[in-house]
């Protein structure tokens, strides 16, 4: 079977061939082509040495930052291409990287060093598919299996354990028995991996079509207790509440699957109820309550995200969503919604709505969430009308108030707070002349009381 390859990729392979070298598309790009997906990028492997690759493409821009591993990045107008010399690898050190890279002469030698059979295929239009380890058959059977002995592959690079989970989750496949057993046997090796590398794989799992599949597998392989031990307390935790038909862990996974594939929302879904096991109280009727679990959960999530080396901005967004996720219980009028927009942020408010809708859907069967869709429309209306919801949107500032005769200090903020309260109720008051008039009336009222 022939696959449709972008012209710039075919031309690159052709140019290497015209100089007497072999060249193939390799790895994930071949896997995606067989699955009928458009690869996000294309990797090329060749028997040309790095210096030969640079010479062949001397008229083009090349980036040499990976040259010690045999990789040259060719910058093309359409996209950049990684071109890597066939290689075999010496013994790995620290379960992370090979001691040194050795160049190989045959494509089959290069493919033998790769992690999974579905990533150990190569293709060009002249020779066709090279598949020495049965990757195409494993794709057809929806199997994730290592190339060769799974223990050896995972001992070489411990991150491959999480990569196996990620491919299973992204593709909706299952793990071959020996591969699964090896993952579980040496899962403790994950402790040796940097948090940055763990975070990258975890985020890809969370952004898959069915992230709960990956989280359950991480739990089954005894990895969850290593990377997010805080979630272990939610497993089997009975909520003892008529409004919830699942334990906390299964509720979390349901919410996770029902949120859109936006990283901030998926992370908030994963951690939104993590505080429940630490806040449960039982009333006289035997019903469980979780007062303050939103605040406790936000604090816990902040520590987890810090441990995962996440950015301050991502952490702030996720913890804000968790802290505010229980506001769906509040009966908020227009003024309350404006306060909510102010606390959450205009750029995050619809993330919160996504989280709240999913949270309600996963609480118990047949729950009605029409009020949340209505609330979402009200928020859109407020934003579309550009109605003010924070002080910086007032048509007046501290300098204007000082010009009315007030001295700098606490009083300026108090006046702005008072004006904001009035504008929240009546957006039409947000005109400088009207706001100044309100201040003058307040001055006059105070003077008449003296």
Automatic annotation (TrEMBL):
<dbReference type="InterPro" id="IPR002646">
    <property type="entry name" value="PolA_pol_head_dom"/>
</dbReference>
<protein>
    <submittedName>
        <fullName>CCA tRNA nucleotidyltransferase</fullName>
    </submittedName>
</protein>
<dbReference type="InterPro" id="IPR032828">
    <property type="entry name" value="PolyA_RNA-bd"/>
</dbReference>
<dbReference type="InterPro" id="IPR003607">
    <property type="entry name" value="HD/PDEase_dom"/>
</dbReference>
<keyword id="KW-0548">Nucleotidyltransferase</keyword>
<feature type="domain" description="tRNA nucleotidyltransferase/poly(A) polymerase RNA and SrmB- binding">
    <location>
        <begin position="172"/>
        <end position="231"/>
    </location>
</feature>
<keyword id="KW-0479">Metal-binding</keyword>
<dbReference type="InterPro" id="IPR050264">
    <property type="entry name" value="Bact_CCA-adding_enz_type3_sf"/>
</dbReference>
<dbReference type="InterPro" id="IPR006675">
    <property type="entry name" value="HDIG_dom"/>
</dbReference>
<dbReference type="GO" id="GO:0016779">
    <property type="term" value="F:nucleotidyltransferase activity"/>
</dbReference>
<keyword id="KW-0819">tRNA processing</keyword>
<dbReference type="Pfam" id="PF13735">
    <property type="entry name" value="tRNA_NucTran2_2"/>
</dbReference>
<dbReference type="Pfam" id="PF01743">
    <property type="entry name" value="PolyA_pol"/>
</dbReference>
<keyword id="KW-0694">RNA-binding</keyword>
<keyword id="KW-0547">Nucleotide-binding</keyword>
<dbReference type="GO" id="GO:0000166">
    <property type="term" value="F:nucleotide binding"/>
</dbReference>
<dbReference type="GO" id="GO:0008033">
    <property type="term" value="P:tRNA processing"/>
</dbReference>
<dbReference type="GO" id="GO:0046872">
    <property type="term" value="F:metal ion binding"/>
</dbReference>
<dbReference type="GO" id="GO:0000049">
    <property type="term" value="F:tRNA binding"/>
</dbReference>
<comment type="similarity">
    <text>Belongs to the tRNA nucleotidyltransferase/poly(A) polymerase family.</text>
</comment>
<feature type="domain" description="Poly A polymerase head">
    <location>
        <begin position="23"/>
        <end position="144"/>
    </location>
</feature>
<dbReference type="InterPro" id="IPR043519">
    <property type="entry name" value="NT_sf"/>
</dbReference>
<feature type="domain" description="CCA-adding enzyme C-terminal">
    <location>
        <begin position="301"/>
        <end position="438"/>
    </location>
</feature>
<dbReference type="Pfam" id="PF12627">
    <property type="entry name" value="PolyA_pol_RNAbd"/>
</dbReference>
<keyword id="KW-0460">Magnesium</keyword>
<dbReference type="InterPro" id="IPR032810">
    <property type="entry name" value="CCA-adding_enz_C"/>
</dbReference>
<keyword id="KW-0808">Transferase</keyword>
């Amino acid at each position: 079977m022939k696959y449709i390859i972008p012209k710039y990729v075919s031309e690159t392979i052709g140019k290497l061939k015209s100089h007497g070298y072999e060249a193939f598309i390799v790895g994930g790009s071949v896997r995606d082509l067989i699955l009928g997906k458009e690869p996000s990028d294309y990797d090329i492997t060749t028997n040309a040495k790095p210096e030969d690759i640079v010479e062949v493409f001397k008229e083009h821009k090349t980036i040499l930052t990976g040259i010690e591993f045999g990789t040259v990045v060719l910058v093309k107008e359409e996209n950049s291409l990684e071109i890597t010399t066939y290689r075999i690898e010496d013994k790995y050190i620290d379960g992370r990287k090979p001691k040194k890279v050795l160049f190989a002469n045959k494509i089959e030698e290069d493919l033998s060093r790769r992690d999974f059979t579905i990533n150990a295929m190569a293709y060009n239009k002249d020779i066709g598919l090279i598949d020495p380890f049965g990757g195409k058959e494993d794709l057809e059977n929806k199997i994730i299996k290592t190339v060769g002995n799974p223990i050896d592959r995972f001992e070489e690079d411990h991150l491959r354990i999480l990569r196996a989970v990620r491919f299973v989750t992204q593709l909706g496949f299952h793990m071959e028995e020996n591969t699964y057993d090896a993952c579980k046997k040496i899962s403790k090796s994950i402790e040796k991996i940097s948090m940055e590398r763990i975070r990258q794989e975890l985020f890809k799992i969370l952004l898959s079509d069915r992230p709960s599949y990956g989280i359950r597998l991480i739990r089954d392989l005894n990895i969850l207790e290593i990377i997010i031990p805080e979630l272990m307390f939610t497993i089997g935790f009975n909520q003892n509440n008529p409004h919830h038909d699942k334990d906390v862990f299964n509720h979390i996974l349901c919410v996770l699957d029902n949120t859109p594939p936006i990283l901030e929302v998926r992370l908030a879904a994963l951690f939104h109820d993590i505080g429940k096991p630490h806040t449960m109280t039982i009333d006289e009727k035997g019903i469980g309550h979780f007062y303050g679990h939103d605040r406790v959960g936000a604090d816990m999530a902040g520590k987890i995200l810090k441990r995962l080396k996440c950015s301050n901005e991502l952490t702030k967004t996720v913890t804000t969503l968790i802290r505010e996720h229980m506001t769906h219980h509040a009966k908020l009028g227009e003024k309350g919604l404006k306060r909510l927009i102010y606390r959450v942020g205009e750029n995050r408010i619809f993330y919160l709505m996504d989280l709240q809708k999913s949270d309600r859907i996963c609480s118990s069967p047949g729950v009605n969430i029409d009020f949340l869709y209505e609330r979402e429309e009200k928020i859109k209306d407020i934003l579309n009308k550009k109605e003010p919801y924070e002080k910086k949107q007032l048509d007046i500032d501290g300098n204007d108030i000082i010009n009315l005769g007030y001295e700098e200090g606490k009083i300026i903020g108090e006046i702005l707070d008072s004006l904001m309260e009035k504008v929240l109720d009546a957006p039409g008051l947000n005109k400088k002349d009207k706001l100044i008039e309100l201040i003058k009336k307040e001055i006059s009222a105070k003077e008449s009381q003296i």
